[in-house]
Amino acid sequence: MKILVCISHVPDTTSKINFTDGDTKLDTNGVQFVINPNDEFGLTRAMWFKEKQGATVDVVNVGGPETEPTLRKALAIGADTAIRVNTPATDGFAVAKQLAHVVKDGGYDLIIAGRESIDYNGSMVPGMLAELIGANFVTNCISLEVDGTNAKAMREIDGGKETVSTTLPLVIGGQKGLVEESDLRIPNMRGIMQARQKPLNVLEPVDATKETSTVKFEKPEPRGAVKMISPDNLDELVSLLHNEAKVI
Amino acid sequence: MSVLVYTESEEGKFKKVAFEVASYAKAVADQMGTTVTAITINADDISELGTYGVDKVLKVKDSKLDAFNAKTYANIIKQAAEKEGTKVVVVSSSADSKYLAPLLAVGLDAGYASNVVDAPTSASPFTVKRTAFTNKAFIFSTIDTDVKIVGVSKNAFGLKENSSSATAEDFSPSIPENGVHVDSVDKATNTVTIADAEIVVSAGRGLKGPENWGMIEDLAKVLGAATACSKPVSDLGWRPHGEHVGQTGKPVAANLYIAIGISGAIQHLAGINASKVKVVINTDPEAPFFKAADYGIVGDAFEVVPKLTEKLKEFKAQNA
C-alpha cells in the first residue's frame, strides 16, 4: 500500500497571531510552526500501517522552503520520503489541485489529511482532493482499518458516530481517535539523524488558479473584563444571565 | 439566478441551522436583487422555511436518501443549482454540510468560503468575513468564481424572520452510485447534542472523578443543555470521546458555555471561544479561563453547582 500523508505547516496553538503589511499577511515573527495536529494523528496511523501491514509512507506539503523543517519532522517520525510542492498555499482549491497532481503521479492508494488545519480551518482540501482524483472520501475520521483494497472507517457525526465501508483509493480527513494522543510520537535522536538522509523532493507546481483571495485580516475586538460573582450570590448570576446576557 | 440554500433536516424535521442558513440566503438574495430557493432532502413540512425568507422549495423525497451520504447529497445539490442557474449556494457548518461542501465546490467549479460569520460585505467583488486561526482572527475573502458557495458559521448570523410564502416543487434528481456505504449509525437519542445545543455545560478534572458527573447532568437538564468535557477528562476515560470539546475535539458555538473545574488551556479555549457568553466556575482564582470568561465564580464546584441548579429551577418555575 502506498500512503501519502498531507502535512500542513501551521502556527502552534499557543502562538500570538498578528498581521503585517496593512493586515494582509500573517506576522511570522516569533511564531513557532508545527505539524497540524489533525495531520499528526493521521501520520501516526500511517506509521502503524507501515509497521503492521507493510506500506510506504510519503508526506507532502504545498508551500515555500520555510515549511521544510516541518516536513523533516515528519521524516524523523518515520515517513520515507517528503515532497514539497514549491508554491505558496494560496487557497484550499489551489492546494487541492497541486496535491491531486502529486497523487496521480505517485499512484497512491490511501491519502490521509487532517479534517481541518488549525490556521485557516477551512475543512476544504481533503474533500476537494478526493473529488479531483475521483477517490472515495471519509472525513472526521476516528478509526481506519484497511484490508486489501477494502477499508472500514468510523467517523464522528453530530451526536454520535457512524461506521462506513469503502474501497481504495481513499482520502481521509483524520482527527484525534485515528490514534490516541498518547500514541503520538516525538522524534528521537536516531529518527532526526535518519531524517537528514531521507529524500525531500521539491516539485515545481502545476497550473492551478485559486478561487478565493484574502483581502485582509482583522483581529477580534478585545473582550470586556470578566465580571466576578460571589459563590454566595448565585441569584445575581441567574439575573445577569437572564437580564444582561439574555441567554436564559 | 436565485440563491440556493441547502436546508438540512433530520427524520423529516428541520435542524435549527436550516433556518439560520435560510436567513443568511435571504440577506444575500436581497443584496443581489433575487429570490431564495431552498433544497430539502426528505423533509416533511416545509412551510416554516417561508418564515425565514424562502420563496421556493425544491423537495426531494426518496427513501434511498434516508441515510446521509456526502457525495450523493452533494450531487443532488449540484443538480438543483444547475436547474436553478444559481450563482450563490449557501450551506451550514454542520458536520454533514462541511463534509459535502468541498465535493460540491469541485462539482460546480465554485469557490467555497467556509466559517462565514456575516452577510457579504460586498456583492461585487463577492466578499465575506470568515473566522480563522481558531477564532483568533477574521479574514475578509473574495470568492472569485462565477458560482460561489458560502458556508455559514453556526450561531453567528442568527435567525432573521422575513415572512414570505414558500411554494413547494417536487424535484426528482438522479441518484448516483457511491463508493462509501454507511453500515451503522450509533447516535445517542433523547439527549441534546453539542452541535445543536444553545447551552453547553462542560466540566473538567476539577470534578475529581466520573462518579461526580451527576450534578453536571442535573445542571444541564435544568437548562436543556448538552454536556461536554475537557480533553484530560476524555483521555482518562471519565467521559466518552464524543463529549470532548476543544481544538482536537468538537467545536462549540453555543449561546452560553458553562465551564466547571476547567482551567482553560489554550487548546480548550480555541475550541469553545466561538460561544457567545462564557461562565467559569473554578476554585483557583488564577485559572487562565477567567481571562476569557464573561462571568466568573471562584468557588468549589461541589457546593456551587448544586446550588446553581436549585436557583435555576426556581427561576424556571417563575418564568415558565
TrEMBL record, chain A:
A GO CC term?
cytosol
Pfam families cross-referenced by the UniProt entry: ETF
Entries under SUPFAM superfamilies matching the protein:
Adenine nucleotide alpha hydrolases-like (SSF52402)
- What GO molecular-function term can you cite, just one? electron transfer activity
Output the Gene3D superfamilies linked to this UniProt entry. Answer: HUPs
The residues the entry assigns to the signal sequence are none
What protein does this entry describe? Electron transfer flavoprotein subunit beta
TrEMBL record, chain B:
Which keywords describe this protein according to UniProt? Electron transport, FAD, Flavoprotein, Transport
Q: Does the keyword Electron transport apply?
A: yes
Record-annotated membrane-spanning stretches: none
Q: Which segments constitute the Electron transfer flavoprotein alpha/beta-subunit N-terminal domain?
A: 3-188
User: A GO BP term, please?
Assistant: fatty acid beta-oxidation using acyl-CoA dehydrogenase
Binding positions (FAD): 205, 261-268, 282
**MF (Gene Ontology):** electron transfer activity; flavin adenine dinucleotide binding
Cofactor section: FAD
Domain of life of the organism encoding this protein: Bacteria
Entry cofactor note text? Binds 1 FAD per dimer.
Q: Which InterPro entries match?
A: DHS-like_NAD/FAD-binding_dom, ETF_a/b_N, ETF_a/FixB, ETF_asu_C, Rossmann-like_a/b/a_fold
Annotated family = Belongs to the ETF alpha-subunit/FixB family.
Q: What is this protein called?
A: Electron transfer flavoprotein subunit alpha/FixB family protein
The scientific name of the source species is: Gelidibacter gilvus
